Amino acid sequence: MLVVVLLMVGAGLATSAPVRSTPQTYLIGALNLLRLHSMDRDRVDWPRAEAEAVRRAADVTAPAGTYSMIREVIAELGNPHTRLVGPASARAPLPESIDVPRSHASHGVAVVRVPGFVADPAGERRYVAAGVAALQAVEGQATCGWVVDLRDNIGGNMWPMLTVLAPLLGDGVVGSFSGPGVAPVTWSVRDGRAVRGGSAPAAETNPVRLTRPRPPIAVLTSKLTSSSGEATLVAFRGMPGVETFGAPTGGAATGNEVFDLSDGAQLLITTVVDVDRTGRIYGNVPIEPDHSVPPADAEAVAAQWVRAQGGCG
């Protein structure tokens, strides 16, 4: 599945590399994945890079001993979103330990906080269920509009995030992925479900329907907003009645494919960039907010804007 990833919080097809019989073949396999899939592959002199890595790995006795060689080639790609994650960090957290969406409301403005997400299917069900409950708890109080808080969203799997926010995004195409040599892949919302291309990567559906259609929406960002947190922001960009508040984002509005290696490590290889519904292309550059506000003050300023737009004063 396409997952946007940051520090193993991860949009890409989860693919397993063949079993490697020696550290040297493990290394060659990892470099081949980078050469074949990275959108930045043309930046590297592959014959030189591979020969140097193999020379240095001649006496290595375990796959972990090749990590530094792999990371040096990743550095040559020049894409900060591409990375090698060790086996311990590649393990999904327990479902009960993950942060989940929460909400509150005040004076006609409903605020929903959408944190980053990485977990197994059980964790995804818990995350979406909590998000649905959060929206249900405040939907009746959103007489002026909504604030979507992405300030602490460092990334993960974007599809549960879009499912939680499906009632606010509305049905239709909300963005896409684009990359060299690959066909664009759309992100859509359909009947409360996030849809990638023609499939539905999020198994869960959000049944919430807004009493007030097309309300004013303010989206909050900070430098922590990154990876799939930025993809979630991009899904709102170009949408009528939406403005953003806070600080520039982390600058990783790109999508990665996740490749499982034989020792439990993972290669997160950037293959695409995010594109909003207007066709604007993003990438590894921070996304500037419409209203630059210290993140700590962003919710209050955004709520005031929502009330003004909603005719609530």
From TrEMBL:
GO terms for molecular function: endopeptidase activity; serine-type peptidase activity. Residues 1-16 form the signal peptide. One of its GO terms (biological process) is signal transduction. Residues 93-294 form the Tail specific protease domain. One of its GO terms (cellular component) is outer membrane-bounded periplasmic space. Keywords: Signal. InterPro entries: ClpP/crotonase-like_dom_sf, Tail-specific_protease. It comes from the Bacteria. It holds the Pfam family Peptidase_S41. SMART domains: TSPc (SM00245). This is S41 family peptidase.
